[in-house]
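Standup notes
- DV: blocked on the single-chain target, sequence here:
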Amino acid sequence: MNSLRPETYDSLTGLRFVLSIWIAVFHLGDMYDPQGFGAWAIMRAGAARVDVFFVLSGFVLTHIYWARSKASFQYRNFLRARFARLYPLHLLALGLLCGLVVAAHVVGQGAQTRHFTLTGLIANLALLQAWAIPGANVWNFPAWTISAEFFGYLIFPLLLIPAVRLRSRPWVFVCLSLGVVLTIDLLFRQFLGRTLTRTTVDLGILRGASVMWVGVAARVLFERLHLTSLQALVVIVFGAAIALGGAMMALPTAVVALGGAMLVIGLAARDITRQASAYATGLDHPAMVKLGGWSYAIFILHVPIFMAMENVAKILGTNLPINPVTVLIMVSVLIGLAAVAHIWVEEPARKWLRGPTASV
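- DV (later): unblocked, structure below
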């Protein structure tokens, strides 16, 4: 193992913030101005946001639990750590939505909440939103991704098996993982009549786990690469272009995953060489790293927070206009509340569930 590999990659933390804000802004337009702001061309690159997140997750987890770990993999401790990472804020988001549903009934608007079913709520509580359960997508609909990701956690030891067996042939592993994503995509097109990119609550677990596997393979390949700063920057640019272009042109998910893998590898390599480089990305800036620490709170809480702000606007007797000013205000409020949730809920709950020495 290369001794220069750090324990964490700040640029990847900054990338998490960019992706989470991008997702939040997209849903803001999609929820309240789908024919205007939500229809902008850049908003159609939705798959790039989600699938790059899955690749990033697979890369980071492999780095933590396989590449730099000197201890044997402890499956029970791994799942406990991942549960502690996801569940407290997920539960907070559901609690906020339950409060909004109750408030709607109190003010006589209960008919508007008829799709918020008990079955869907139970599915969310059990992290089964991406298992094709009716009504599960209504409650905090972006959270299907954490259901898909948790499925990836459940099978993570299986995803690591090729990491060991193909460590000396990482390009084979990368091609294998991309081939699996492409095969699942083709099977979905053939038998379910939809692409993998359009799969969310209906068996999104297969999308999440397979794309995470590309991230695992990317970390194994990264172990063999020794990119210069300029080479890393080129990989970053091409990776971002492939991921965004693939999403906007509705190419197979494997293309987006490939771009995401290149982007993550390039950013990680850039972090290693940043001390002697003039090619900065800005994602490793301390402010971006701090914001990246709040990224999960931003992602999981943005829908209930936006819904609460919409309801406040209605109480004040106005509809919520979507324009650059209101978007900036709403995103700023979201970031502020996400910071509070991270400090007062996410971090204390994670430490309580994992123990005071846990940091991942």
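- Follow-up: The two ends are 21 Å apart (CA to CA).
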